[in-house]
Design brief:
There is one protein chain. Helix 2 packs across helix 10 (about 270-280). It contains 10 helices and 6 strands. Strand 2 (about 55-60), helix 3 (about 60-75) and strand 3 form a beta-alpha-beta unit. Strands 3-2-1-4-5-6 form a 6-stranded parallel β-sheet, with helices on both faces. It has a single domain (about 5-180, about 205-290), classed as NAD(P)-binding Rossmann-like Domain (Rossmann fold). About 40% of the residues are buried. It is about 45% helix and about 10% strand. It is α/β, with parallel strands linked by helices and about 290 residues long. The chain has helices at about 5-15, 35-45, 60-75, 90-105, 130-155, 180, 185-190, 200-225, 250-265, 270-280; strands at about 30, 55-60, 80-85, 110, 160-165, 230-235. It comes from Mycena venus. GO terms for molecular function: oxidoreductase activity.
């Protein structure tokens, strides 16, 4: 159910619940987009729970290495491992998943966090609009390619793996134009089309559209896996947080967002607590989180 404005304001301005904690001894956590923002802050929280390994999946090797060192410096955790993953490149996604599969190790928790909001039309090397590619196509492909490892981990160890897809309550604001379903080609091809996205407002709304697709993906994957699968798939709203995500916003919109940052925005650390909750919360009632 869509939250009211008053409920959304209360959620942003109320004192945030403390981070959920668990013993992650022996387990492996993977965080996409782990070098900054809520992604990095969530790795810090996981590091305090003694996992065997945290995989920091980052596009930039330089920024990724800096994040691994920063994690070590700020937490004392020495088992952070950088893996290169460019969600705007299908080949990179496949190579990333292949590496983890070939290593044959565990993967207990996957935080599908990375996102982009360029607010202008850019195509990736694979020919897709970049926001759609990174936030939905690349993220979904990564989850699907890692699914066998997550399932094997759960079955071999008698545990429940978790996939957390980071979405946003902005998905409530999306109205998909009727022509998306009637134009030739697939819905995704239409949503990636320069012609369809030509009105400025549509490319500016593309981030929210991808967040809706994230929710659809989480629900569909959960439905396909079924209620007996040893894996929990959920989608989480981290809230409106101070973030590098909006670095490409300019003009009046940027002024308004800076005002929100100064008044109601959560810190990245506060937002990351919600990701950790989706990954670890309700340990005796996990089934309530499916989908």
């Amino acid at each position: 159910m869509q939250p009211t404005m008053s409920a959304a304001f209360k959620a942003q301005t109320s004192k945030q619940a403390p981070v959920v904690k668990a013993d992650l001894t022996g387990k492996t956590v993977c965080v996409l987009g782990a070098n900054t923002g809520i992604g990095f802050q969530s790795t810090k929280h996981f590091a305090a729970m003694n996992p065997t390994k945290i995989i920091l999946a980052c596009r930039s090797e330089t920024r990724g290495r800096e994040a691994v060192q920063r994690l070590r410096d700020e937490t004392g955790y020495t088992k952070g491992e950088l893996q290169i993953l460019d969600l705007a490149d299908f080949a990179s996604t496949k190579q990333f998943a292949d590496r983890l599969e070939q290593e044959g190790g565990r993967l207990d928790i996957l935080i599908a966090n990375a996102a982009s909001e360029p607010r202008k039309f850019i195509t990736t090397k694979d020919g897709w609009e970049s926001t759609l590619h990174i936030n939905h196509l690349g993220t979904s492909l990564t989850v699907l390619r890692l699914l066998p490892t997550l399932l094997r981990t759960a079955k071999d160890n008698g545990t429940l793996s978790r996939i957390v897809v980071v979405s946003s309550d902005l998905h409530y604001n999306v109205t998909i134009a009727p022509e998306v379903r009637t134009r030739p080609g697939s819905i995704l091809q239409t949503l990636s089309s320069a012609e369809f996205l030509q009105p400025l407002r549509r490319i500016q709304e593309q981030y929210a559209v991808t967040k809706l697709l994230n929710v659809f993906f989480a629900r569909a994957l959960n439905a396909h896996l079924g209620p007996s699968a040893p894996i929990i798939v959920d989608a989480v709203n981290p809230g409106y947080c101070v973030s590098e995500l909006r670095r490409n916003v300019s003009g009046f919109t940027n002024i308004m967002l800076k005002l929100l940052d100064a008044t109601v925005a959560l810190t990245a650390e506060e937002g990351s607590r919600r990701l950790v909750w989706a990954a670890l919360g309700m340990p005796s009632k996990e089934d309530a989180l499916r989908g």
